[in-house]
Amino acid sequence: DSTDDHTLLWLLNHIRLGIPELIVQVRHHKHTRVYAFFVTATYESLLRGADEIGLRKPVKAEFGGGMRSFSCEEDYIYENIENELYFFTSQERQNIIRYWLENLRAKQGESLHNIHFLEGQPIIPELAARGVIQQLFPLHEQRILKRLMKSWVQAVCEAQPLDDICDYFGVKIAMYFAWLGFYTSAMVYPAVFGSILYTFTDSDPTSQDISCVVFAIFNVIWATLFLEEWKRRGAEFAYKWGTLDTPAESIEEPRPQFRGMKRISPVTSAEEFYYPPWKRLLFQCLVSLPVCLACLALVFLLMLGCFQLQ
Length: 310
Fold this sequence. Notes:
10 helices, two-stranded antiparallel sheet, two-stranded antiparallel ribbon
């Protein structure tokens, strides 16, 4: 609510010039008295963004099927490419737009009031850390939320709509609830077996010891089968949702908050941000280690003081 016009125009111009694919609308909320940037993109821009981040999409059966990183040059091979409403899920659209926003980087010597950006530093995360931007979040789609409310939250004794959850909240959230449902169902077996064993066990110590041993053996077998079955089930979901053979984190883009200088990678020969290991080691030796030692010394002295008072 205290943002000046210069800051708004500065950020608006950087978004429009740095990310021409985005459509930005500025609104002022009369009740909260804050400014908001409503950001979206056209279908053609989202396709280019999917190509840029390597979004994996299902391929038509006549072209081999399976999942493949999206390519604008061969867009005709992907399922539902002709349908603008159903080709991208809600989560995928938000992911592309957020990727663009978080990778809007500053040029050398750029500054905003007392904020001085480093060359190549992400602008949006820095402004969020400085309090210029209060929040960055996707808006809910009430139509999908109402459908999930009926098929998921209010449904009783029905299977979870995991595909709908994945489309709206993403693979991580869907995988969590898939595991939670699988774990809850698997817990029925030890619960039933334990109840039967408890019912037919006599009160003498020998019978109770035998029951404990039998139940322990059952739990070992159950836990082994549970883990192996979940590995198979999790691999099925990962393949279905296109995350089974995603690239390792080591070759992905660095997180937007990472700071470093640009260089040519000796491994891939591509431009990358690099932070020298000696700087990290210097920070650990001159800052992290002394602070930890000082805290340990303080705790030790307080402990001695407590002993002396006792």
